[in-house]
Amino acid sequence: ARIWNAATGQLIATLTGHTAPVGVASFSPAGTRVVTASWDQTARIWNAATGQLIATLTGHTAEIGDASFSPDGTRVVTASSDQTARIWNDAATSQPIATLMGHLAEVNDASFSPDGTRVVTASRDQTARIWPVAAEYVQSLIRARTPLCLSVPFRQQTLGETPQEAESHEKACQACVPKFFAQLKGVPVGDAQTHIAAWRAYRGCLDRAR
């Protein structure tokens, strides 16, 4: 895949590494990363400014036909001919957060809802399905003890943020994370609605703090 300057037509970066055709490439909401999906059964996340590989998402057992970021840019959803869609935390791990199983044929498309709490998938089995995914995401962070606050150097070097953006995001995160985990203290794993409410409150806190 290649990244081009839309105003000048100049080539910015060539994304090299897939071992089979690349069918899809899309930017993160902030425009700092690109996700690609390939017939080599992987999706890859790249720094949009430098073309540097950030993560390789492995686990599908057939070609991947679609991949896109969540509205907040923290997750990626992929759709595959192995009859599943998968959700990934692009900043923390190359392992899937959740595997969406149930379709009876290849999954052609998958995308997040505007608030990031659901995913819709479309399949050649002649159905589309809607999946609640916010609770699974929050629970995976807790199980893995994933640091929600990425360091300033990581944000600059890997996500391509400016020093001012990186410091602002890290400061906002440090202010909001304690409130987020406090809301979930003692909440049962199966209480999806509370997990979703806590995640929405956390994202709202970040938006206000920046």
Q: How would you describe this protein?
A:
By secondary structure, this protein is of the alpha+beta class. It is built from four helices and 13 strands. It has helices at 134-144, 152-157, 163-184, 192-209, and strands at residues 2-4, 11-14, 22-27, 33-38, 42-47, 53-58, 64-69, 75-80, 84-89, 96-101, 107-112, 118-123, 128-132. A hairpin with a 5-residue loop joins strand 7 and strand 8. Helix 1 packs across helix 4 and helix 3 runs antiparallel to helix 4. The mean pLDDT is 85.
Terminal residue distance:
33 Å
Percentage of residues in DSSP E strands = 25-35%
Q: How many helical elements?
A: 4
Give me the side-by-side strand order of the main sheet: 3-4-5-6
| pLDDT < 50 stretches | none
**Looking at the chains present, what oligomeric state does this protein adopt?**
single chain
User: Percent helix among the residues?
Assistant: 25-40%
Q: How would you characterize the largest beta sheet? A: 4 strands, antiparallel
Shape: flat
